[in-house]
Amino acid sequence: MSQRGFSVVALVLALCIIAGAGWLVYAKVFRDTGSSQVMRPGGAAVPVYIAPVRTGMIRDLRTFSGSLTPKAQFIVAPKISGRLERISVDVGDPVRRNQVVARLDDAEYFEQVEQAKAELAVARANVEEARSDLDIAEKEFVRIEALRGQRVTSQAELDLSRAKYNAQQARLKVAKAQVDQRQAALRAAEVRLGYAAVRATWPENGTDNPRVVGERFVDEGATLSANAQMLSVLDISGLRAVFHVTERDYPRLRVGQQAEVTLDALPGMVFAGQVSRIAPIFREASRQARIELELDNAQGLMKPGMFIKATLELGRAEDALFVPSAALVRREGDQGVFVVTGEQKARYVSVRTGIAEGDHTQLLEPADLTGDVVVLGQHLLEDGAAVRITED
Hints:
The protein is of the alpha+beta class. The protein has 4 domains: 46-58 and 318-389, conserved putative lor/sdh protein from methanococcus maripaludis s2 fold, CATH 2.40.420.20; 63-67 and 234-315, Efflux pump adaptor protein, beta barrel domain (Elongation Factor Tu (Ef-tu), domain 3, Beta Barrel), CATH 2.40.30; 78-105 and 196-229, CATH 2.40.50.100; 107-194. Helices cover 29% and strands 40% of the residues. The chain has 3 helices and 20 strands. It has helices spanning 3-34, 107-149, 155-194; strands at 46-52, 54-76, 82-87, 94-95, 99-104, 197-200, 211-216, 223-224, 231-245, 258-263, 266-282, 289-296, 307-324, 329-331, 334-340, 345-350, 352-357, 360-365, 372-376, 385-389. A 6-stranded antiparallel beta barrel has the order 2-9-12-11-10-13. Strand 14 and strand 15 (334-340) form a beta hairpin. It is elongated.
């Protein structure tokens, strides 16, 4: 064999040796990583961290997200059209009940009042004229009636006099009705003139707390139509926290139920509230119902539109058996815990859970479970595996 052929054979043998070594390393790694990491009974003790099974009260707390809305809100709008001459409040200003917040140009309505007064004066003059004519007609009728009794005048003259007298009576009634009509027109004109002073009005509710301007929609000089939006006035002495719940939680809510409300805008502060309204209908799109909480806002820290989290207690269990939630494991679709026995063995116990509060979960079955459960390292265990308790 030539020296060149010998070199080729040596190179092939070297490649074969390297490939074989690589295969052995790969097989070993595959065997080590592909094998189950669960310790079999009788194997080396698995280091685990444990916690005791405890008995006490556990609550079913649910937290819902929502937002704040004002206790009351309405829009201030003029009842008549006109040019806005002055607006005396702005966003954030306090407003009292019946306070004048804006004024419209009232020249046109002032002239209407003056015209109504003049027409009323004319109507009253017509009454006086009709009353005077009635007196004359009455005297003439009495005279003709006396003459007819003496047979000095004819029956036709008496009938004509009576007709004039009756006509004057009717005319007086019409004149008086016109006075009433003109008085009503004057009152209406005066009311319209009063509407030029736009007021923020709301019904009395036992308190006279001022409200605040939430929004302003117009500026001075704008020409407004009747019922055009000018201001938004809010009552923020009390607020409503609004959120929605699903069908699962809905039956467990009731009016008067207490709640704790927190806000991202006010970290570290907790506000007390209670359920005031539970909607009797679910939205078809979300299958959720509206819930409202009443909140006292005497200090004015909370504002409408803020994001809130409301925590409510939907249930509680006294003398409940509970374990850390981290102790729960699943084996072939079954839920359970590993209990450490006196022989330092891990015994798998199937459980049925109940209320979960924080990092703990209630155990409904078995009701007599005692001892310690594994909370760290249980993924390496099987029933009967040896364990080594560690504090690290």
